[in-house]
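Posted in: Protein Modeling Q&A

I'm a second-year student putting together a small comparison for a lab meeting, and my supervisor asked me to include a predicted structure for Beta-amylase. I've never done this before, so apologies if this is the wrong subforum. The sequence is pasted below exactly as I got it from our records. If anyone can share the structure token output, I'd also love a short note on what stands out.
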Amino acid sequence: MPLNTVNNDGSLNNPSQIRANLQKVKSVGTDGIMIDVWWGICEQKSPQSYNFTAYQQLFTMCQQIGLKVEPVMSFHQCGTNIGDAAYIPLPNWVLQVGQWNPDIFYTDQNGHRDREYLSLGVDNVAIFPTSVPGKNRTAVDIYSDFMTAFRNTFSSFIQSGVIDVIEIGLGPAGEMRYPSYQLQNNLWSFPGIGAFQCYDKYMLNNLAMAAKNVGHPEWGTAGPNDAGYYNSMPYQTGFFSDNTYNNYASNYGQFFLNWYSGMLIQHGNSILQRARSIFGKNAKLAAKIAGIHWCQYNIDFEFTCMEMIDSQQPSNCACGPAELVALTRSTAWKYGLDYGGENALDIEGNTQANAQIVKQSSSSGKAISGFTYLRMSDSLLNSSYNFNVYAQLVNALHQLEMNTKSSNSNDTIHILKQLPKSFLFSFKN
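Accepted answer (user: helix_wrangler)
Welcome! Here is the predicted structure, written out as tokens:
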């Protein structure tokens, strides 16, 4: 669904047109939609005061038309990523906390604050208000309260199966990652290495404790001092080069990288544990992964760049998106996780991208659990050519599902565990 499906004031944007669009995509076999449930809209005005009215209208439409819904618990800001056509900041009352305590936001070595997502350093720090004056809560409590309110509001849609999967946002753009590649203020451009985001006081305090615990307090004062900046290349830095002092492979480098990635994994674990407890053991939950970070709690693995072909990438960047998809897909399956994909960039009318998506959607007789098309737009729906190409992709993926099931019909017990219950083809906002 488009990013402006729900207005910033909490109302549904042009309901009659939305209904017509949903009916059109349903007519060519689309199974469902994906929609961000924005924290910045639904809990906008005051803590623990939720407004899901527009989403109730939208989900009811989908139920009437026969479409599944995959809501995304979106705890990030919209408007600073590729393709963002709307601006939805974090809730006002959160930004007010940030005015007197800017360390609630991720910070780089130059002191730049990224306000699109709360730093994981405040996951367990009770500095955010509740509806009760004088009583505070942690960031993880905030996410838990929001998910609980969503569950209570939409329990009938969950129980009836209209809500098929619930995706849990874990970072910027909803992905389990740091905001290392920042487009705002022209800080980063492809293929720069990005910047470490560990300079808010809460992250630095944790780093200092971790360094002290391994007997090297000198390692805990800051991140690497020779890791370059957003647009550096690895060979231009000491930290990411081979055979340099205190580089990534040194004892110090391994300590820092293990701490940095470990903090992110702990962040994901904390939120997903709460999500599983809130939505129950039978709910189908998903998390979007950026890079390779593994989660448990029976969570689906969602990955992007399904349409990308290695030969189309810049030759000087050592890009291998097709290999990355294959690696993450095989590893997710190895650990018993369902694997879902989506496109990273606009693919309207692109038959070559469609062919690559179909190719990447199965391996060794096994299909991925679903594909999310990014994204529904006027140029897709109003162009007969673009829409026909889209319809061909839907048909090809559904045919892939049928062929995969048919080719493995004799291997009943093993294959029944592996095959998806249904191939969910949905639209991303």
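A couple of things worth pointing out for your meeting: The first helix runs from residue 15 to 27. The chain has 13 helices and 15 strands.
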